[in-house]
Amino acid sequence: MHKEILDVTERSRNVYFDTSIYNRLLDDPEKERLLKIIREKNLIIIPSVINLCELLITSTPERKKELISIYNEIRNDFHPLKPSPWLLKDSVESVEKGDNEWEITYPISINKKMERICHDLASQGGKEIEPYLQGARNYIQEIAKKKRLSDELQYFSYIDSETGQIILLKLFAQICELVEIVFHFNEDTQFSIIKSPFLPWKYYLESYAYLFYRRAFPDKKYGKKSNPGPSDLEQCVYLFWTGKFVIEDANFLIFLKRLKAIRDYQVNIINYSEFKHYLL
Length: 280
What we know:
With about 280 residues, the protein is mostly helical. The protein contains 15 helices and four strands. It folds into two domains: about 5-125 and about 270-280, no CATH class; about 130-240 and about 255-265, no CATH class. Helix content is about 60%, strand content about 5%. Helix 2 packs across helix 5 (about 60-75), helix 8 packs across helix 12 (about 200-215) and helix 10 packs across helix 12 (about 200-215). The two termini are about 30 Å apart.
């Protein structure tokens, strides 16, 4: 178990790649030079289980082999980061037990069995939050009318208020129920969990809270097609660990950069070109 993974208070060297970044790096003519600089800078780039599954279901065998080779070279013997439901469950358990350190990675062997699991996960599409997305959107629209919340800053100011934080508590309870997490603590402890910048819940809940706002106001050109998808939002849990979050999808990048600015996250949200510029 590597201490660097667990010490999220010292996360400046921690870098998270969206899966598209592995593909960009593979196709970069300066790939070998960039990999060398990553090692020289002693950056900790650990993929998630989401990354690994997406790499393993690459349709072209030769490209899949090359992507896994980069995956193995970059991760430097670290196991991939756990999926979001596991991280959320473990963070609740760590609070209940009073643990300051908890394992955020999961040992996985790359073999045919793992590839079958990844194909099955991809075909299932995961659990969607859509069943109560419409209800949340309607609720936020009503709140916005009553409180005259005309922009994101006003909206999150309301979320931070004593009454507005009930939205996050309800969201916390609903997501716990959705992924079958059972907790046994009072409201004050719940607030401490969803506010902590060193636990995954803050980023996960606030990303969905922001999505609900954007989906509630289609007249602001925040239609469904301009928002990140479910698999993107699942990766927001890793914001608690990383110093640099590198993504390429335009919708996700715009969404996350705006959320970072509103909430003042101490994380650099950058695309591949910006990360490459940082390295060089």
